[in-house]
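User: I'm preparing a small set of examples for a lab meeting where we compare how different chains pack in three dimensions. I only have the primary sequence for this one, and I'd like the structure in token form so I can line it up with the others. Please keep the answer compact; I'll paste it straight into my notes.
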Amino acid sequence: MLMSRARSPWAKTLRERGSDSDMQGQQTMEKEGFKVPQPELMLTTTRGRATVAGLDSSQEYNLQVLVLNGTTEKLLAKRRFTMEGLREEEMIRSGSREQKKKTLPGGSGSGDLDDVTETLLALPTVLYQDPTTTMVPTTEPPPIETTRHLPDEALEKSAKEKRKRKKEKDRDRSKGDNKEEQGTTQDKPADNKPRKTPFLIQPVTDMAPRKPFECDSNAAADIMLLVDGSWSIGRTNFRRVRDFLEGLMTPFHIGPKYVQIGLTQYSGDPRTEWQLNNFTTKDQLLEAVRNFRYKGGNTFTGQALLHVMEENMRAKSGARPNTPFFLVLLTDGKSQDDAITAANRLKNAGVDIIAVGVKNADEAELRQVASEPVELNVYNVNDFPLLSKLVARLVHILCGRIEDRGIAKRMDPGPTADPALSYPSPTDLRFSELGSREVKLHWTSPASPARPVQQYRVVFHSAEVQSPQEVVVSGSESTVLLGGLSSQTLYHVSIFPVYEDNVGLALRGTVTTLPLAIPANLEVFPSSYSSLQVSWEAAPGATQYMILYSALNHGEPDDAKEEKFGADQTVVELEGLIPSTDYSITLYALYDEEPSDPITTVATTFSLPSPVSVQFPVVTHSMVRVTWVPGAVDVPGHRITYSTNHGSDVKQVEVTGQNSVLLQNLSSLSKYLVSVQSHYLQGLSAALTSNVTTLKVPSPSDLRVTNFSGSDITVRWEAAADDVVSYLIKWISLSGGDLQQLRVSGDSEGAILEGVEDDKEYQISLSALYGDGAQSEAVAIRYSTLSGGGPSSVSVSEETPVSFVVSWVSPNAHVLQYRVSYTALTGAETQESTVLVPGGEKHVVLQYLLPDTRYSIQVTAEYRNREGGSGSAQGKTTSLRVSSVSVVRSDHSSICVSWRPVSAVDGYRIIIQSVKDKQTKEETVDESRSSFCFTDLEPETVYRISVHSLLGSVEGAAVSILHPTATAPARIPIHPWLYPVHNEVCPEVTIRNSIVKGFDMMEAFGLTQKAYSSVEGVAAEPFVFNTLPTYTLYKNIQLTQSTKFIHPAGFSPEHTISITFRILQDTPREPFALWQLTDNDFQPKMGVVLDPTTKHLVYFSLDYRGEVQELTFDQPQVQRLFYGSFHKVHLSVSQVSVSLSVDCQRVGERPARPLGNLPTDGFEMLGKLVKTRGPNSGSTPFQLQSFEIVCNTTWVSEDTCCDLPGLRDEESCPAQAYTCTCSSDIPGAPGPPGPTGKPGPRGEKGEKGEQGEKGEVGPPGRSGIEGGLGPLGNRGPRGMTVQGKVGPPGARGEKGDLGRPGVQGLPGPPGPKGEVGIPGPKGIRGAEGSIGAPGLTGPRGFQGMPGHPGPTGERGPMGSVGPTGLSGTKGERGEKGEPQSMAIIYQLVTQACEQLVHKEVLKLDMFINEMSRKPAPIEEPVGPPGEPGIPGPKGPPGSRGTQGQLGARGRPGRPGYPGEQGRRGMPGEKGDPGVNVQGSAGLKGFAGPPGESKLGAPGYKGEDGKPGPPGIPGSSGQPEDPYYGYQP
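Assistant: Understood. Below is the structure token output for the 1528-residue chain.
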């Protein structure tokens, strides 16, 4: 502050009345008067006070106060004064100082005035405001800006006359002493700020010090009180509001010609308590204030302000034209709607708004609502009792403004003799309620009582169309609503006053209507595969909505369809759409028939759900059964298309209501492409395709000889299949002869082979022929026709790698023994082995054979004195060699291998050997295992893994593969918990005294009594309601464990995740994973996520397609998880769904895809924040009590919630294991007997007991009934045959039957060439040929049409976490909280009490230990370590360490992720023809099918043997029966 150095016994203080919000400073200038010219004195200050010293009491001074804003200056106030005049005024006011302390007009504070301020305010002060511009084209002549100022002499004279009239208590005011600054600006848009009118504040004199103030002005004014009646005020404070309103009304003169006061109370909707003209006396008004009732509700201030403008400012409500209108707003909170726009409309209408805020009111909002200057129109107090201190201040302000308006009205000069002013025009054209189709005009009527306006002619037309329209209103009106306008159009408006004998000049202006409101926030998303849901925000005033939608065909829209909806519909469904199709949706808001601007978006309907999981449970040579899982419920039908791999012979099958179909009449050994599509009413879904290969045709079985009679052999067999066309039988004598064959029908199961000679051995073969031309492998037997006969139907069964069973049919009962000879058909010379079997046996087990080897077996019958016939067969032992050896997962230090099990083995031996250094490990497992994991391997090393099968002392051939280990990644430190690593998917663990298959995850993360003290950031807290302690995981500890350590062999496809936890008060309100499993790059693949913001639980997992699926549970029971108590969650994961149970109560179920292969080289984490990634990112604090993963989906029914106090059932839950101990050794009285426990589990089967002693001999039994005749005895031995004499010749026999057809004769000579015959029937389909050589390259085709847009790419990786944002603004006051149940409150109180008691017991133990400490320090045993305390605050940074040595060069980094696919290049030019040079030989082809087994040419006929002795004549034969001995 600059100050003159001249001294004076009197100093003057000035308090400016300006805003500190928009100004950089204030400048005070004092110019001396006309007596002795002196230099100008200037002071600059940022405070509201300036002190000037050293003034001359004989001089008159001119004071100016200016507001500095940058480089601009604005005059705020000016006046003239003398020191003597100031002293006189100080003496006048000395008697009423206490009353004047409450008259400061503006701002918040105590309201006290200092002496000099009262002196300054007592004199007339002119405020210079910015000139107000309105859209008011005035009448001709052209506008001239004029500003009329009062002369300085008039100001001084006015001050003296006012002081004199105040002393005489004259209420008449001086007319014409002061004139408000006036000005009119034409043809400019109206400013949003209302005109600031200068006001004069007169001192109140000759009043008693404590006499209540009374506004003695006779001027008229309309005051509307707008009172907030929302719930936040309360009934107690509302009584204080009534007292405040009563004090505000009391000082005024109430009446139709004076002050009228109305009141509106608002909350959710405004309610007028009384209008301005309802009460004409003060007593009636005060009685109404005391009796109006509290409303209650929300705070919608904007709606209430509009209610005042539309309801309380009308003439029928008491509002008077040309009368100042004041609005006093009283509120205690922030408006829940747009109050600023509504306030601007009121201020544009000429309303002075005074805003009073209490307690939680938003002062920034009040300053925007109130009129200018806001320092005089905004008041804010901290609480309702302080409202009484504002009463006097507001009364003085209102009284002064009413008086100023009255003075200005009286000082308005009368009409002059100028003819142009004889018929004045209306002024102050204003616009309100501006919309797209209407606008409301306001004007000020000319003050001409002698010539009242009879009518107003309002003429308007658009800028484009010059044809005017006209509206005539009464002369008493000053508003009119113009409707039926066009949107977004400039209109010219002229208002002509019509007098009785003339028409005045027009008041002109322009206004532009608003554009038609368009709907906002158009959102479209698919609701099904044939419908889209469209939603938007309503457009104000729209009569209906229209939607145009069309399918996009290659980006271009098809014919559009149109639908219209009512104005109240903002959510609609578009149905009957094409699945998996892009649609363009365009929305219009219609106003009658005029549309708004459109808003357009594109959305895609869902694809028709395709089937999933096609399987082929039955595959034969000619049929395949196809099964699938429908992609949706109630699919109408399915279409199955199948064809051979090269696309020929395409066939289709339609099924309805089935999930499987049998495909028949297929070709054998053919690869088929099978596709399944779901058939909906809307069309076909996408096809799910798979390949299947049919088997080779089966051979007939059980070929045997059932009868040999004469020269015929009867053979029978078991049918090969139902679709056999015919059977081909071939037979030949092994001692020489021609090959004979016979073809019989496919329905036959037997045949008679003719022309068989005695005493020869025959080879008989049988094969089946099929309709597709395929022929099965032949089955063969040998049969001997030697006398005595040999076994038949020799067969091999029950093959193992080292044995099989040989069975046969005995020829007769006289066989002494059988000689079974067998030889390995290995190609090398092998020794024949022989086994002798008694004649009564019909099978033998051949042991100690070679695995995977074919043997030739011959069974020969031996009689007492000769060797009989024989039968032969072939058999093959099964292989000990394992198959399908593969690596299922590996990382830098482990390899897990699996194989297909072999039946009937004792175990497996697995060997792994490093190719680099030949280090070898091996392991033997039992026959139930089909996988094994080797750990602690070297990274980046190639290993050979070999698998042998074991059967007794025999070991199968090794099957070996090579596989490398990965590069060792950078790992986060992992604590070595005392947790056994199980190399199996589901090991046995003990969980709450139950042995189940699964994982104890608490033990895996080290959250046990033995291990938790070594885990950083974890504390254990006892829980008296449970034997299990509670573990608190603190913020950002990020408890992490390697997946290969917990689940080295992977996850069971069906399991249950069970977690008991509690969310703490300091748990952040952002999503976090209770538990999650990630890959090596920390990308989540499975887990359980809690979202405190939405109160949802999300389960996600990697499905069989390699995609991460998310299932959200948002039921009301899920929301209880976030209320701060312990809860138990069970997630039962099956192949097709995931079900959720909360606190042992089933909540819901979501369909899901089967679980895929989860990575085992990643990590598992607890409490991980979802928005963070990497090894050192953040985690959330929470409490964990139990966590297990059980390998079944029934654990939720077996587990209980007895560890939750609020859900504990004392009858069904086991008794508590109390941890308290008594200090007394005397046992207490026995308690009452407990309830009967549940039956225990069934015990194991006991061992076999010892053999008892032999009992005593019992008494003799009763005599039995006499038996009957015994059965017929066996036939006796054959008697000796004695040759008798030759008898006489017998009689001639009868003629025999017709003989059998003879043997086929030799072929005759060739006959003459015959004529061309008719075409024969279509032959049987030939065998499928081999694939031909590739054809020549064809000519280059024309360029194809652009393809369809590709599918939407997968979502990219989440970006890095951004910087921490700035602190937000203070939130609004929350709603009333939900009531908590007594069980939850009891649980919270109980837990708090437990912690408090636990802390006090620890303090007591410490005190007792201190008291009992021995005085001399002696060595005592060290106790177990105590519980870890809460982690302390982060310590100060340590000193900088010494410079470390330069590290070794790091390994080369891993290859980066592949970049985005580049754009397709331009097609190249056609190349030159190549040189016709024969290429190199191709790769060796695949092995061909096995060849057909055929017998070779018969050998040479042997020499004739010597004639033997004559045989013994045989017994009489049986009657001839070709099927004698045949047993079906």
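A couple of notes for your slides: The radius of gyration is 55 Å. The chain is about 10% helix and 30% strand.

User: Perfect, thanks.
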